[in-house]
Amino acid sequence: MLKKPSPKITLNVISSRVLEMFTGSDALVSVVVVLLGFLAGTIIILAIGRNPKGMYEAILQVVSGISRNRNMEWVWNPRYIGEWLVSSIPLILCGLSMGFAARTGLFNIGAEGQFVAGLTAAQFIAVLFPPVPVLHWVVAVAGAVAAGAAWGGIVGFFKARFKVSEVVATIMMNYIAFYIHRILTLRLPGTNTFRTPDFPKTAVISSPFLASLTNGSRLHYGLWLTLAAVIIYWLIMGKTRLGYSLRATGLNRDAAFYGGINVKLSITAAMAIAGAFAGLAGASVSLGVFSYGRVLAVQEGYGFDGIAVALVGNSTAWGTALAGLLFGMLKSAQSLMQSRQIPKEITSIIMGLVVVFISLRAGVKLLIDWQMKEKAKRTHVSDVQEHGTQTHNREEQ
After folding, report:
1. According to the model, what pLDDT value does residue 15 have?
2. What's the pLDDT score for residue 328?
3. Is 225 domain-assigned?
4. Residue 185 sits in which domain range?
5. How many structural domains does the chain have?
6. Domain for residue 153, yes or no?
7. Is residue 122 part of a domain?
8. At what angle do helices 53-64 and 317-338 cross, to 10 degrees?
9. Residue stretches of the chain with pLDDT short of 50
């Protein structure tokens, strides 16, 4: 007669397999934590006596442009879609900056400083470079990318050469970039305490076509630059020898070194390329969203938001792009939520909870490893006992 499995054992097996499946798929983890974040946001809205329907209506309006007017008629305004993409562009680029470094085993908290370096370089070139059509904005964007790469490369060099913690170095470089930006920008001719003179039209990357397509939004050529950056990230990491060297360095630096990979060069290159992505984000904001240079009063936070974007996107090219669109959607929905009597801070809570939930994945993996070790120990003890019993029976016979 067959022995029925214990319900407790069956439940343990099922829970273990569910946990293994959950932690084995990075994409599944990201989807689940996003849903959990929205669930928590919904509960908070209900707890403060508001209707969560307003939050989802605001999100629908952002991603589709569809909303109800005062007469409760459905209307479509693509301007909201354009503004959503405008908000997402710097988040995606700063997420790529964080993610690229993470794939090499580095924690780039300095995307904010690299963003500021790129923004500063773009503004200087926009104001001072001769107003030659096309060439002007191309040089400004290239200068921003170079400035971001240099700012990140400095940290990479110190990490590779002197083993300086990139976490501490990038945090300090954020402040250095910010105050250098203020000192230098205030020295531009005609600059007051908060802005520079207007940029020449040859310096900006605004797009009349994209603006007309989205009913007068601020959507600009940075959209195509961001798409190109995502493709370049994907190509470098997955299709080139450089990408293989960077990934090998991130997985195990000692093994990469003994395998003939120049680890020091990989670390420096990774931080420089990561800085280039953040520098491009600075150019997209300064030349695409504004028609004049700004004297920043505080750090804008794009670099820090990029950390969350990279975590949710699992530091992959397309995953980071989708995560940037998600966070850009939440930021764009803030004002629309306020118009529906829902605190805009709810979106910040959702973004924070998403990061917290995705960070729990490491704890779940530790739990699974512990369970597997305990199971192996029990199996080993059971085998030893069974072997001892069989030996004893033979001796008696």
Report:
1. 61
2. 97
3. yes
4. 87-326
5. 1
6. yes
7. yes
8. 120
9. 1-2
Cα(391)–Cα(385) distance, rounded to whole angstroms? Answer: 10
Q: Is 74 helix (H, G, I), strand (E, B) or coil?
A: strand
Beta bridge partners of 67: 75
The tokens for 384 are 């030893």
Q: In this structure, is residue 200 part of a structural domain? A: yes
From residue 363, how far is each of 12, 23, 38, 353, 367 by CA, in Å? Answer: 18, 10, 22, 16, 6
pLDDT at 4: 52
Is there a contact between 50 and 187 (Cβ–Cβ < 8 Å)?
no
- Would the pTM of this model clear 0.85, i.e. be above it? yes
- Where are any strands of DSSP class E within 46-154? 66-68, 74-76
Pairing of strands 195-198, 292-294: antiparallel
Question: First and final CA of the chain: distance in angstroms?
Answer: 28
Strands (E), the chain: 66-68, 74-76, 195-198, 292-294
Q: Determine the 3-state secondary structure of 206 from DSSP.
A: strand
Three-state DSSP at 200 gives coil
Burial of residue 192, with CB atoms counted within 10 A of its CB: 0-12 exposed, 13-18 middle, 19 or more buried: exposed
Residue type, position 207, single letter: S
- In angstroms, the CA 197 to CA 216 distance is 24
pLDDT of residue 358: 84
In sequence order, the 6+-apart residues with CB closer than 8 A to the CB of 362 are none
Q: Which residues contact 235 (CB under 8 A, 6 or more apart)?
A: 243
> How crowded is the C-beta side of 106, counted as CA atoms within 13 Å?
39
Q: Tell me how many degrees the CA angle 226-231-236 measures, rounded to the nearest 5.
A: 125
**Which single residue is written with the structure tokens 């500021």?**
116
Centroid of chain to Cα 200: 32
